[in-house]
Amino acid sequence: MVVVALIAPAVFIALIVLFLVPGSSVPKSTPRSVLLRYKVWEWNAGWMGLALAAASVFMATEGLKSLYGKPRPDMLDRCNPDLSNIAAYAVGGLGQRIAGAPIIVTWKICQNKSDELKVTGFESFPSGHASFSFAGLTYFSLWLCSKFSIAFPYFSYFPYAARSHDRENGVPSEEHNLDTNSRGNEPLAVRDQGAAPPIYMVIIAFVPFAVAFFIASTRWFDHRHHGFDIIFGSVMGVVFGSVGFLFYNMPIRRAAGWSWGPRSRRHAFFKGVGWPSHVGADNWACPTGTEICLPRMDTESASARSMV
Fold first, then answer.
1. Residues 23 and 62 in one domain
2. What does the pLDDT look like over 226-268, one tens digit per residue?
3. What is the pLDDT of residues 152-176, one digit of tens each?
4. Is-above-0.70 flag for pTM?
5. Residue 13 is part of which domain span?
6. Which of 43, 178, 180, 282 has the most Cβ atoms closer than 10 angstroms to its Cβ?
7. Which sign does the torsion angle of CA 254, 258, 262, 264 carry?
8. Residues 194 and 87 both lie in one domain
9. Alpha helices, DSSP H only, in 148-257?
10. Residues 79 and 202 in one domain
Protein backbone atom coordinates (compact mmCIF):
# COMPACT_ATOMS: atom_id res chain seq x y z
CA MET A 1 0.00 0.00 0.00
CA VAL A 2 2.75 2.47 0.92
CA VAL A 3 4.63 1.67 -2.28
CA VAL A 4 1.57 2.18 -4.49
CA ALA A 5 0.00 5.16 -2.70
CA LEU A 6 3.11 7.11 -1.64
CA ILE A 7 6.41 5.99 -3.17
CA ALA A 8 5.13 5.45 -6.73
CA PRO A 9 3.38 8.87 -6.94
CA ALA A 10 6.50 10.54 -5.50
CA VAL A 11 8.70 8.92 -8.15
CA PHE A 12 6.35 9.87 -11.00
CA ILE A 13 6.09 13.46 -9.74
CA ALA A 14 9.88 13.76 -9.68
CA LEU A 15 10.23 12.33 -13.20
CA ILE A 16 7.50 14.52 -14.69
CA VAL A 17 8.96 17.65 -13.13
CA LEU A 18 12.47 16.70 -14.24
CA PHE A 19 11.57 16.21 -17.90
CA LEU A 20 8.45 18.34 -18.54
CA VAL A 21 8.72 21.41 -16.29
CA PRO A 22 8.69 24.35 -16.96
CA GLY A 23 7.52 23.54 -20.52
CA SER A 24 7.44 25.56 -23.73
CA SER A 25 5.47 28.51 -22.33
CA VAL A 26 8.59 29.96 -20.68
CA PRO A 27 10.63 32.30 -22.94
CA LYS A 28 13.67 30.66 -24.52
CA SER A 29 15.85 33.47 -23.21
CA THR A 30 15.13 32.53 -19.59
CA PRO A 31 18.40 31.87 -17.69
CA ARG A 32 19.17 28.29 -16.72
CA SER A 33 19.31 29.20 -13.06
CA VAL A 34 15.69 30.34 -13.23
CA LEU A 35 14.63 27.18 -15.07
CA LEU A 36 16.35 25.12 -12.38
CA ARG A 37 14.45 27.11 -9.75
CA TYR A 38 11.22 26.26 -11.55
CA LYS A 39 12.02 22.55 -11.43
CA VAL A 40 13.14 22.52 -7.81
CA TRP A 41 10.13 24.48 -6.60
CA GLU A 42 7.59 22.42 -8.57
CA TRP A 43 9.27 19.25 -7.29
CA ASN A 44 9.18 20.55 -3.73
CA ALA A 45 5.55 21.65 -3.97
CA GLY A 46 4.52 18.34 -5.52
CA TRP A 47 6.15 16.31 -2.76
CA MET A 48 4.99 18.63 0.02
CA GLY A 49 1.35 18.26 -1.01
CA LEU A 50 1.69 14.48 -1.25
CA ALA A 51 3.42 14.29 2.14
CA LEU A 52 0.78 16.51 3.75
CA ALA A 53 -2.04 14.32 2.41
CA ALA A 54 -0.36 11.07 3.50
CA ALA A 55 0.74 12.25 6.94
CA SER A 56 -2.59 13.89 7.77
CA VAL A 57 -4.73 10.92 6.77
CA PHE A 58 -2.39 8.53 8.61
CA MET A 59 -2.69 10.49 11.86
CA ALA A 60 -6.46 10.82 11.56
CA THR A 61 -6.93 7.14 10.72
CA GLU A 62 -4.73 5.82 13.52
CA GLY A 63 -6.38 8.18 15.99
CA LEU A 64 -9.88 7.00 15.08
CA LYS A 65 -8.81 3.35 15.20
CA SER A 66 -7.50 3.79 18.73
CA LEU A 67 -10.51 5.85 19.80
CA TYR A 68 -13.29 3.53 18.59
CA GLY A 69 -11.66 0.08 18.75
CA LYS A 70 -14.25 -1.51 16.47
CA PRO A 71 -13.77 -5.30 16.04
CA ARG A 72 -12.90 -6.56 12.58
CA PRO A 73 -15.27 -8.92 10.70
CA ASP A 74 -12.77 -11.76 11.18
CA MET A 75 -12.36 -11.02 14.89
CA LEU A 76 -13.91 -14.32 16.04
CA ASP A 77 -11.56 -16.32 13.85
CA ARG A 78 -8.58 -14.45 15.26
CA CYS A 79 -9.93 -14.72 18.79
CA ASN A 80 -10.64 -18.48 18.87
CA PRO A 81 -13.18 -18.09 21.74
CA ASP A 82 -13.55 -20.64 24.52
CA LEU A 83 -17.13 -21.66 23.72
CA SER A 84 -17.17 -24.29 26.46
CA ASN A 85 -16.90 -21.66 29.21
CA ILE A 86 -19.11 -18.80 28.04
CA ALA A 87 -20.70 -18.20 31.45
CA ALA A 88 -17.35 -17.32 33.03
CA TYR A 89 -16.89 -14.41 30.64
CA ALA A 90 -20.50 -13.19 30.35
CA VAL A 91 -21.00 -9.52 31.22
CA GLY A 92 -24.54 -8.92 29.98
CA GLY A 93 -27.08 -9.59 27.30
CA LEU A 94 -30.59 -10.98 27.14
CA GLY A 95 -29.16 -14.50 26.96
CA GLN A 96 -28.59 -14.46 30.71
CA ARG A 97 -32.37 -14.41 31.19
CA ILE A 98 -33.77 -16.08 28.08
CA ALA A 99 -32.33 -19.27 26.66
CA GLY A 100 -31.01 -18.94 23.13
CA ALA A 101 -30.74 -15.12 23.22
CA PRO A 102 -27.39 -13.38 22.62
CA ILE A 103 -24.91 -13.09 25.48
CA ILE A 104 -22.34 -10.31 25.75
CA VAL A 105 -18.90 -11.52 26.80
CA THR A 106 -15.58 -9.83 27.52
CA TRP A 107 -12.69 -10.13 25.10
CA LYS A 108 -10.90 -12.37 27.61
CA ILE A 109 -12.93 -15.28 26.28
CA CYS A 110 -10.41 -15.36 23.45
CA GLN A 111 -7.91 -18.19 23.77
CA ASN A 112 -5.58 -16.10 21.63
CA LYS A 113 -4.57 -13.33 24.02
CA SER A 114 -1.60 -12.03 22.04
CA ASP A 115 -0.85 -8.31 21.85
CA GLU A 116 -1.38 -8.50 18.08
CA LEU A 117 -5.00 -9.51 18.62
CA LYS A 118 -5.64 -6.66 21.06
CA VAL A 119 -4.05 -4.13 18.73
CA THR A 120 -5.01 -5.19 15.21
CA GLY A 121 -8.18 -7.13 15.97
CA PHE A 122 -10.00 -4.00 17.12
CA GLU A 123 -8.98 -1.62 14.32
CA SER A 124 -11.75 -2.04 11.80
CA PHE A 125 -12.92 1.59 11.74
CA PRO A 126 -11.87 3.31 9.58
CA SER A 127 -10.05 1.31 6.92
CA GLY A 128 -6.41 2.41 6.85
CA HIS A 129 -5.79 0.87 3.42
CA ALA A 130 -8.77 2.75 1.97
CA SER A 131 -7.94 6.10 3.57
CA PHE A 132 -4.20 6.04 2.82
CA SER A 133 -4.56 4.80 -0.76
CA PHE A 134 -7.27 7.33 -1.60
CA ALA A 135 -5.28 10.17 -0.01
CA GLY A 136 -2.10 9.54 -1.98
CA LEU A 137 -3.69 8.50 -5.26
CA THR A 138 -6.41 11.17 -5.23
CA TYR A 139 -3.66 13.75 -4.77
CA PHE A 140 -1.70 12.22 -7.64
CA SER A 141 -4.76 12.22 -9.94
CA LEU A 142 -5.42 15.89 -9.20
CA TRP A 143 -1.73 16.70 -9.68
CA LEU A 144 -1.74 15.04 -13.11
CA CYS A 145 -4.92 16.91 -14.06
CA SER A 146 -3.27 20.17 -13.03
CA LYS A 147 0.01 19.63 -14.83
CA PHE A 148 -1.58 18.43 -18.10
CA SER A 149 -4.70 20.65 -18.05
CA ILE A 150 -7.13 17.73 -17.80
CA ALA A 151 -10.47 19.33 -16.95
CA PHE A 152 -13.93 19.96 -18.31
CA PRO A 153 -13.93 22.70 -20.98
CA TYR A 154 -14.57 26.12 -19.47
CA PHE A 155 -14.53 29.83 -20.18
CA SER A 156 -11.29 31.39 -18.99
CA TYR A 157 -11.58 33.69 -16.03
CA PHE A 158 -8.79 35.97 -14.82
CA PRO A 159 -8.78 37.90 -11.53
CA TYR A 160 -6.38 40.36 -13.16
CA ALA A 161 -6.05 42.16 -16.51
CA ALA A 162 -5.26 39.42 -18.99
CA ARG A 163 -2.51 40.18 -21.49
CA SER A 164 -2.02 38.57 -24.86
CA HIS A 165 1.41 37.01 -25.38
CA ASP A 166 3.49 36.11 -28.35
CA ARG A 167 3.85 32.31 -28.32
CA GLU A 168 7.42 32.34 -29.59
CA ASN A 169 9.12 34.99 -27.49
CA GLY A 170 6.75 35.23 -24.54
CA VAL A 171 6.70 39.06 -24.62
CA PRO A 172 3.49 40.53 -23.16
CA SER A 173 1.62 43.04 -25.27
CA GLU A 174 0.02 46.24 -24.06
CA GLU A 175 -3.52 45.07 -24.86
CA HIS A 176 -5.84 44.29 -21.98
CA ASN A 177 -9.11 42.40 -22.19
CA LEU A 178 -11.05 41.24 -19.15
CA ASP A 179 -14.10 39.81 -20.89
CA THR A 180 -12.97 37.70 -23.84
CA ASN A 181 -9.90 35.86 -24.98
CA SER A 182 -8.14 37.20 -28.03
CA ARG A 183 -5.49 36.11 -30.45
CA GLY A 184 -3.80 39.39 -31.30
CA ASN A 185 -6.63 41.69 -32.39
CA GLU A 186 -8.83 38.85 -33.59
CA PRO A 187 -11.59 37.91 -31.12
CA LEU A 188 -12.26 34.22 -30.47
CA ALA A 189 -15.67 32.66 -30.92
CA VAL A 190 -17.29 31.37 -27.74
CA ARG A 191 -17.00 27.74 -28.85
CA ASP A 192 -13.28 28.21 -29.52
CA GLN A 193 -12.46 29.30 -25.98
CA GLY A 194 -12.39 25.76 -24.63
CA ALA A 195 -11.97 22.17 -25.76
CA ALA A 196 -12.09 18.73 -24.20
CA PRO A 197 -8.72 17.14 -23.34
CA PRO A 198 -7.66 13.95 -25.17
CA ILE A 199 -9.46 10.89 -23.84
CA TYR A 200 -6.22 8.99 -23.29
CA MET A 201 -5.07 11.77 -20.95
CA VAL A 202 -8.31 11.49 -19.00
CA ILE A 203 -7.74 7.74 -18.67
CA ILE A 204 -4.15 8.26 -17.48
CA ALA A 205 -5.31 10.74 -14.83
CA PHE A 206 -8.06 8.36 -13.68
CA VAL A 207 -5.74 5.33 -13.31
CA PRO A 208 -4.46 6.31 -9.81
CA PHE A 209 -8.04 6.83 -8.64
CA ALA A 210 -9.04 3.42 -10.04
CA VAL A 211 -6.10 1.77 -8.24
CA ALA A 212 -7.33 3.29 -4.98
CA PHE A 213 -10.77 1.76 -5.58
CA PHE A 214 -9.15 -1.63 -6.17
CA ILE A 215 -7.09 -1.45 -2.97
CA ALA A 216 -10.14 -0.47 -0.93
CA SER A 217 -12.26 -3.27 -2.41
CA THR A 218 -9.71 -5.92 -1.41
CA ARG A 219 -10.34 -5.09 2.25
CA TRP A 220 -13.97 -6.11 1.79
CA PHE A 221 -13.25 -9.43 0.10
CA ASP A 222 -10.55 -10.27 2.66
CA HIS A 223 -13.07 -9.67 5.49
CA ARG A 224 -10.71 -7.18 7.15
CA HIS A 225 -13.24 -4.33 7.36
CA HIS A 226 -16.97 -3.75 7.40
CA GLY A 227 -18.46 -1.95 4.40
CA PHE A 228 -19.02 1.33 6.24
CA ASP A 229 -15.42 1.31 7.48
CA ILE A 230 -14.16 1.14 3.89
CA ILE A 231 -16.53 3.84 2.64
CA PHE A 232 -15.66 6.17 5.51
CA GLY A 233 -11.93 5.59 5.01
CA SER A 234 -12.25 6.25 1.28
CA VAL A 235 -14.05 9.55 1.87
CA MET A 236 -11.39 10.52 4.41
CA GLY A 237 -8.69 9.80 1.84
CA VAL A 238 -10.38 11.88 -0.86
CA VAL A 239 -10.78 14.81 1.54
CA PHE A 240 -7.17 14.77 2.76
CA GLY A 241 -5.84 14.20 -0.76
CA SER A 242 -7.80 17.23 -2.00
CA VAL A 243 -6.62 19.35 0.93
CA GLY A 244 -3.00 18.41 0.24
CA PHE A 245 -3.45 19.40 -3.40
CA LEU A 246 -5.11 22.74 -2.68
CA PHE A 247 -2.47 23.72 -0.12
CA TYR A 248 0.37 23.69 -2.64
CA ASN A 249 -1.20 23.72 -6.11
CA MET A 250 -3.29 26.37 -7.79
CA PRO A 251 -6.81 25.50 -9.07
CA ILE A 252 -6.71 23.23 -12.12
CA ARG A 253 -8.68 25.64 -14.33
CA ARG A 254 -6.87 28.80 -13.33
CA ALA A 255 -3.10 28.33 -13.37
CA ALA A 256 -1.94 26.29 -16.39
CA GLY A 257 -0.42 23.66 -14.11
CA TRP A 258 1.69 25.80 -11.79
CA SER A 259 1.86 25.39 -8.03
CA TRP A 260 1.52 28.23 -5.54
CA GLY A 261 4.67 30.29 -5.07
CA PRO A 262 6.94 30.07 -2.02
CA ARG A 263 6.43 32.06 1.16
CA SER A 264 8.52 35.14 1.75
CA ARG A 265 11.49 34.98 4.12
CA ARG A 266 9.82 37.41 6.47
CA HIS A 267 6.59 35.40 6.72
CA ALA A 268 8.02 31.91 6.34
CA PHE A 269 6.95 30.68 9.79
CA PHE A 270 4.56 33.33 11.07
CA LYS A 271 2.24 36.01 9.71
CA GLY A 272 1.00 38.73 11.99
CA VAL A 273 -2.35 40.50 11.88
CA GLY A 274 -2.69 42.99 9.04
CA TRP A 275 -0.74 41.06 6.41
CA PRO A 276 -2.98 39.59 3.68
CA SER A 277 -0.86 36.49 3.00
CA HIS A 278 2.49 34.76 3.53
CA VAL A 279 3.83 36.16 0.24
CA GLY A 280 5.93 39.31 0.22
CA ALA A 281 8.43 41.30 -1.83
CA ASP A 282 11.29 39.44 -0.15
CA ASN A 283 10.15 36.13 -1.65
CA TRP A 284 13.21 33.93 -2.29
CA ALA A 285 12.02 33.45 -5.87
CA CYS A 286 12.69 37.16 -6.55
CA PRO A 287 16.47 37.60 -6.23
CA THR A 288 17.64 41.06 -5.24
CA GLY A 289 18.53 43.27 -8.17
CA THR A 290 16.78 41.23 -10.86
CA GLU A 291 13.47 41.41 -12.65
CA ILE A 292 13.08 37.63 -12.79
CA CYS A 293 10.55 36.35 -10.28
CA LEU A 294 8.98 32.91 -10.29
CA PRO A 295 5.47 33.81 -9.11
CA ARG A 296 5.30 36.67 -11.61
CA MET A 297 6.43 34.48 -14.50
CA ASP A 298 4.03 31.75 -13.40
CA THR A 299 1.11 34.17 -13.62
CA GLU A 300 2.11 35.47 -17.03
CA SER A 301 2.70 31.98 -18.36
CA ALA A 302 -0.70 30.84 -17.15
CA SER A 303 -2.33 33.81 -18.87
CA ALA A 304 -0.41 33.19 -22.07
CA ARG A 305 -1.27 29.51 -22.31
CA SER A 306 -4.95 30.17 -21.72
CA MET A 307 -5.21 33.03 -24.21
CA VAL A 308 -2.99 31.98 -27.12
1. yes
2. 999 999 999 999 999 999 999 999 888 877 788 888 877 777 7
3. 887 766 543 344 444 444 444 444 4
4. yes
5. 2-69+114-262+292-307
6. 43
7. negative
8. no
9. 199-221, 227-248
10. no
